[in-house]
Each structure stands twice: as C-alpha cells, then as structure tokens.
Design brief:
The complex is a heterodimer.
Chain A: H1 33-47, H2 50-53, E1 59-62, E2 68-76, E3 82-83, E4 86-87, H3 88-101, E5 106-117, H4 122-139, E6 142-151, E7 159-169, E8 185-188, H5 194-202, H6 220-229, E9 233-237, H7 243-255, E10 258-262, H8 270-279, E11 293-296, H9 301-309, E12 318-324, E13 331-334, E14 340-343
Helix pairs in contact in A: 3-4, 6-9
Chain B: H1 10-23, E1 28-34, H2 35-43, H3 46-49, E2 54-61, H4 63-66, H5 69-79, E3 84-88, H6 102-107, E4 111-114, H7 118-127, E5 132-139, H8 144-157, E6 162-169, H9 171-180, E7 188-192, H10 193-199, H11 204-211, E8 215-218, H12 222-238, E9 243-245, H13 257-266, E10 267-274, E11 278-287, H14 296-299, H15 315-319, H16 351-358
Parallel strand pairs in B: 1-2, 1-7, 3-4, 3-5, 5-6, 7-8, 8-9
Antiparallel strand pairs in B: 6-11, 10-11
Helix pairs in contact in B: 1-12, 2-16, 7-8, 8-13
Classes of the chains: A alpha+beta, B alpha/beta.
C-alpha cells in the first residue's frame, strides 16, 4: 500500500460504509449470507438452544424415553401461486417433508397454517389444498392440524402457507452438516436450477419462455432408499434458496472442511444454462425444490449412487466432487479449463447484470 | 448451449495457452478495460493458467463502479419522491450513495423497479400515466443505444411522464487519462468487445499511435480472452503498437452505424465525473437540448445533494490499474459484497467483487484441494 501514492487525477474516493440496515430488506429472505446474518444476530441470541444452534435443515430433539424426532417449519410466499411443474400447495408440503428427510428422519405428520387475503377465490384455494393432499399422499404423511387467518385485501399476496412437520429418527442415524469428513464424496440427485428458472419464467418478466418444469418433489422415499444401502451418509441438504453453492458452503463451514466440486460434473439443463447466461445468473445459486446433495463416505458412494438412480427422483444422480482436508470451510470448483475458483455463499438478492 | 460452448473448449484453450507460454520472453502489464472481462478471467481462473510474466490489471469498465456518487445521491432523492416510479438496471440497486442505497429506499416504501431494458421502463410509463417514471440511464457506449432509444420512443409516443437520469461514460477518454498519468503501468490493452460492437475500433488507432501501446479488441468467453491476450503478447513482443480485432464475429472497424446514429441523435459529448477517478474532459454524454425535457434533473427539483466520500476505499486506484483488489487492507474484511465500501465490490463486473467471489488471492493453494 505504502508504495502507491494517491493518483494525480483526483484521489481515491469511496462512499461511507453502509451501516447495518435498520429495515428488513428482500435480501434477508434470500437464504444467503444476509439471512444467516439475521438468524445469527437477531433470532439465535433470543432462542438459543443446542438443537437450533446445530443449524441444519431441521432440528433433532429427544423425548424423555429416548426416541428422537426431527422437527421443521417452512413458510411459502411464492408468486405466482401456480407455475409449470407445481404450485404453492405442493411446495409447502414438499418443503417441510424434505427438510425433515435431510436429517435421515421419516416424516410422519404435518401441520398447515393458511394466511388468506380477503377476496381470494375459494376455487383457487380448493385447487391448492387438493394439490397439498396429493403431495402428502405421495410422501406418506398426514396433515393433522391447521390454522386459517384472513387479512384485509391488499395486505397479503393472495395466499401464504406455513407448514410444520415432525419425523421419527432412527437412533442409529447421525446425519448433519457437521459430519462431513475428508475423502467423502459429494453426490447430487440431478440437474440444478429448474425450480428457480421455471418460477421466474412463469412471472412473465423474462421476456422469453423456457418450457421448464419446476422439480418440486418429496424426497423422503429417495432418502429411505439411500439409507437402506448405507450407514455412512454423513450430511444431506436440499439446495433450495441460495442454491447448491449455499448448501455446500453451510456444510463446509459446519464441518470445517473444504469441498471441491468439478464444473464439468454438475448437471444443468440447457434451458437453465441459457436463461442464466442471458440474465447473468449462476445456476449454482438458483433454487431447487426436488434435489438433494449428499456427503457420503467414499466406500459407500457407489452403492448410494446406484440406489439413488433406481429411485424416481434420483434417476440423474451424479458424483460432483469430494471433501478435502482443510479447516478453512470453503467450497472450491475445478473449472473445465483446469483452474480453481471459490464458490461463495449467495450474498443477498441476486441481481441481473447490466450488460 | 450452441454458440457458447464452442468458446469454452478446453482443448482449444490449451492450444492458445501453449502459444502464449512459448511467445512470452519478459514481463508485461496488460489492462482489460471491461469489468465483464475481469469477471470472466476470475470466473474461469484464466489468471492461474497464464505465464507469471503477464500481469493483468483491471480497467475502469464497470458502469456502476464509475457512476459518480453525486448521481447516485440524486437517484436516491428522485426515487424517494412521492408519485415517482424509479427504474434501474439491477446492479445499481446496491451501490451505496452517501449512506443509503436503492435497496433500502425501496424497503422504506419507495417504488424502485429493476428493468432489463430501458424500453421496459417506457412500457411502465405507458401503463402508469398518473405516475412519473424515471430511468437511471447509466453505462458505457454499450448501454447508450438502448438508453437513447427509450428517449426516442417516449418522444414519438408523446409520453410526458418518462424521464431519464443520465450518467454516460465513454472508453477512449478514460484510456487517455490512464495513459497520460505519470503512474501509468499499462503496456497493452484488451479493448472491451461490446463497446467496440457499437462504436467500432477506429477510435483506438490514434491512442495506440500516440502512446505506443497495442490495443486488441477482445470478447468475453475464455477463448475470446485467451485469443485477445495472445494477440496482445505477440504485438508487445514484436514491438508493434497497432489495433487488432480478436472479436471479429461481432466487431467491425466502423461499428454499428445505426446504433451510433441513435446515440448521436439523442446525446451530445460532455465532461463527466467518474467515481473514484475524477473529472475526465469529454468523457461523457448528456441529452441534447432538443430532448432536455426528458432530463429528470430538469423535470424535478432535487435538493442540493452533498456527496460524502470516505478515504477508506481505494476503488479509484483499482479502476486505474494502479493497484489490485487484494492489496486493499479492507478487502474481504471490512469490505465484502454484503457490506461494500466501494462500488467495485458491488457489481458482478466490479474488480473487487470478481476477486472476492472467485479468487480472493488467499485462495487455498491448489495442492490442498485434492488431486482433481
């Protein structure tokens, strides 16, 4: 620094740093760093307990007699309410089912809370609820309790749904973000980015059509098939908001390891790749709702991969990388050209590039 | 993806790299003008594959980085006005003004909308006749034709509720400023392919002659960049200061005449202030007087803004290629994409953001990341 004087033309200038925002910004809901920051600074200090602090997709708790449960909750505010491949109802069921399944637990019961805007068509609500039941039946869970609130016209976006769920966790299963070990293989259940781009296209803001379907699916049967063949699945995530990049970063940080993935191994459908090129997005950060990424001991990677490929929602599963010994908690990618770059957590909202 | 994967072919890339390694005999400093090029270099890790003799430095070609703080503050003032729909390219939303950004203005109930094209902003104006729609018309020669078209379109539609906040910058005057600085280290340029698509490259010929630097028009895919670097190194090694075109699939010497005509119809050259660099004579465009009624600064009374910059950020030196992002003591510590100290950390085309996302310099050595 000292070698470099201020340039003659005018001098270095810079805006003052932005102080931490005093308002909630959309980026706080991105699932990326701003969301994590909000949790760490605002929620965790108030609610602090070991189950919450683990920071996984669902919390694992024990009952007095030693039974273990996974509990999770998820709110859904997607717009539009219906899009190619799914709707807010299917999303609400699968979101919570998948969060529970990612701990290796068997989802059993869900609750559903509906926040309805005055004026919403009942026929539309009926379609959403029917879709929820189809998804619940597919997952093999019952929706056993619910709540309904109505807000004045203009104070909601038609319909918001919250679901909470509970699943039973076998005492022998210990899956969590902190258990990734050097040498483990990273398995992805299929192509990334379908959901995010399908929803974006359904909003009609892209100016082009994609023909893409959202990948929304309950993944608990896929997880059960994986657990049947291996007791060495160390961590799992469903890469929803923030995408695969953010999910892998969470695991790398929790386990204090590096994760190396191979660009050429990561499946991306041509339509997703093309939409991302046009908009300046990276598919690694686009949301998925029917994919999982698993960190598996190397000796079991083959049999887990085979089990996944024999399951309806894992037909296109592939190994995309491995866990490396380093405490830095980073995700790195070997590019097609052979160079290596950092894959960071999503910062806030994704911004389209200007040109 | 047809027409993209061809330009990322690892085999062809290796061929170009081998030629660059064979050709180079001594150190050279090469500036890539455009932030899009910086982004691609970091994203594909090209810097790791080039011979150590080549030092790539980053130019001022990041439109949101160089838009003056005063203009950002004016945008914030306009966006806060009742009855205004403020429209902008997405990148601009997180650029800090004197204490706030468009994101936080939007959170406190201003109507700020991201558009992909200024013509979308014209459309919003048509759909909202009771509102005033302002578009933040920033950027280099690349965005100028579309920004100009929006004014032309609003003019022919007779729209009285559309206006633009203009802050346009041009590459050639910035190259003059960089090359005439006594601190200049740049020996060759990769000219920005998309700017040249619009303007052609005849403007660079006198610059190459005057300062005796080779200029190679270069694209944005890995093979485009490697070919641009290859040509530049050949010219440097041969001691030839000429302009060459390594992006002929899009760029001609004369450029896109139709686009230039639209620019010239709407805009006229003016002095422009560049954030982090200062005033560069003749480096901008403003609206011609015939279209002055589309000027948001004239349409609205904007309270005198008093931009406050802090000396902590060295973005100005980075934008001139004097130092590199990781030389900044704040890099990755106080200054991150979530809490940028300077605009170079905000945009995906900003040099600091590209370094932070993809390399960070403290990148774990490749020998620690497995055999690959």
């Amino acid at each position: 620094m000292s070698d470099h004087a201020i340039p003659e033309i005018e001098g270095a200038v810079c805006p003052l740093p932005l102080v931490h925002s005093e308002h909630v910004l959309l980026g706080h809901g991105s699932g990326g760093k701003m969301t994590q920051d909000l949790i760490a600074r605002l929620f965790l200090p108030q609610f602090d307990n070991p189950a919450l602090r683990a920071g996984d997709d669902s919390a694992v708790v024990e009952s007095i007699n030693g039974a273990r449960f996974a509990i999770s909750t998820d709110s859904h505010v997607v717009w539009p309410l219906f899009f190619p491949g799914g709707d807010i109802g299917r999303l609400a069921v699968c979101g919570t089912v998948n969060d529970i399944a990612m701990m290796g637990a068997q989802p059993l019961y869900l609750t559903a809370g509906f926040i309805l805007e005055e004026g919403l068509e009942l026929s539309l609500l009926k379609r959403v609820v029917a879709s929820m039941q189809v998804a619940a039946a597919e997952a093999g869970v019952d929706i056993v309790a619910g709540d309904t609130k109505v807000v004045q016209r203009g104070k909601g976006d038609g319909l918001y749904i919250n679901t909470s769920g509970v699943g039973l966790l076998n005492p022998d299963i210990h899956i969590g973000g902190q258990y990734a070990r050097p040498g483990d293989k990273i398995i992805l259940s299929g192509p990334i980015g379908d959901h995010g781009i399908a929803v974006l296209a359904a909003r009609g803001e892209l100016g082009f059509e994609t023909g893409l379907q959202s990948d929304i699916a309950p993944l608990n049967h896929l997880v059960a098939a994986m657990l049947k063949v291996s007791h060495n699945i160390h961590a799992m995530r469903d890469p929803t908001r923030g995408g695969l990049a953010t999910a892998l970063n969470e695991i790398a940080r929790q386990s204090e390891v590096n994760i190396l993935i191979y660009e050429t191994a990561i499946p991306v459908r041509p339509a997703v790749g093309a939409a991302c090129e046009l908009l300046g997005f990276d598919p690694l950060y686009i949301a998925n709702e029917g994919k999982l990424v698993a960190i598996v001991a190397p000796e079991d990677a083959g049999c887990v991969l085979t089990a996944m490929r024999n399951s309806e929602y894992g037909l296109e599963a592939v190994i995309i990388g491995e866990v490396c010994p380093s405490p830095s908690g980073r995700v790195l990618m070997r590019t097609a050209l052979g160079s290596t770059r950092i894959i960071d957590t999503l910062a806030g909202e994704m911004l389209p590039r200007i040109c | 993806m047809k027409h993209l994967s061809e330009y990322r072919d690892p085999g062809l890339a290796m061929g170009l790299l081998a030629d660059i390694h064979r050709t180079i005999t001594r150190p050279w400093v090469v500036m890539e003008i455009c932030g899009g090029q910086t982004y691609a270099i970091m994203r594909y890790g090209l810097d790791q594959l080039l011979p150590p003799e080549i030092e790539l430095v980053h130019g001022p070609g990041c439109p949101v980085c160089v838009t003056s703080l005063e203009l950002v503050d004016k945008a914030l003032a306009l966006a806060s006005k009742p009855g205004v729909i403020f429209t902008s390219y997405g990148d601009m939303l997180r650029v800090p003004g004197s204490g706030r950004d468009l994101f936080s203005i939007r959170a406190s109930s201003a109507d700020v909308r991201v558009v992909y094209s200024p013509l979308d902003a014209v459309q919003i104006a048509r759909q909202n006749p009771d509102k005033q729609v302002v578009f933040f018309a920033i950027g280099f020669e690349t965005t100028a034709p579309a920004n100009a078209m929006s004014v032309l379109s609003a003019h022919s539609l007779g729209l009285e509720n559309y206006s633009v906040l203009v802050s346009h910058v041009r590459v050639p005057p910035a190259m003059h400023a960089i090359l005439s600085s006594p601190r200049n280290r740049v020996q060759g340029f990769l000219a920005a392919g998309h700017v040249c698509t619009v303007m052609g490259y005849w403007e660079y010929e006198p610059i190459a002659r005057q300062y005796k630097v080779p200029v190679v028009v270069t694209g944005f895919e890995p093979l485009d960049l490697l070919q641009g670097i290859q040509k530049t190194i050949h010219l440097l090694e041969e001691g030839r200061a000429t302009v060459e075109n390594a992006y002929p699939r899009l760029v001609t010497r004369e450029g896109n005449r139709a686009a230039q005509n639209v620019i010239n119809k709407i805009f006229i050259e003016c002095d422009q202030k560049w954030r982090g660099i200062g005033l560069i004579p003749g480096s901008g465009w403003r609206l011609r007087s015939e279209y002055a009624h589309f000027d948001a600064e004239k349409r609205f009374s904007i309270d005198q803004v008093k931009p406050e910059e802090s000396p902590e950020c060295i973005a100005g030196q980075i934008l001139q290629g004097i130092i590199k992002p990781h030389d900044c003591p704040g890099f990755g510590i106080q200054c991150t994409p979530e809490h940028p100290l300077g605009a170079t950390m905000v945009s995906s085309e900003g040099a600091c953001a590209a370094y932070y996302r993809y390399s960070r310099k403290t990148l774990v050595p490749t020998d620690q990341v497995g055999s690959g």
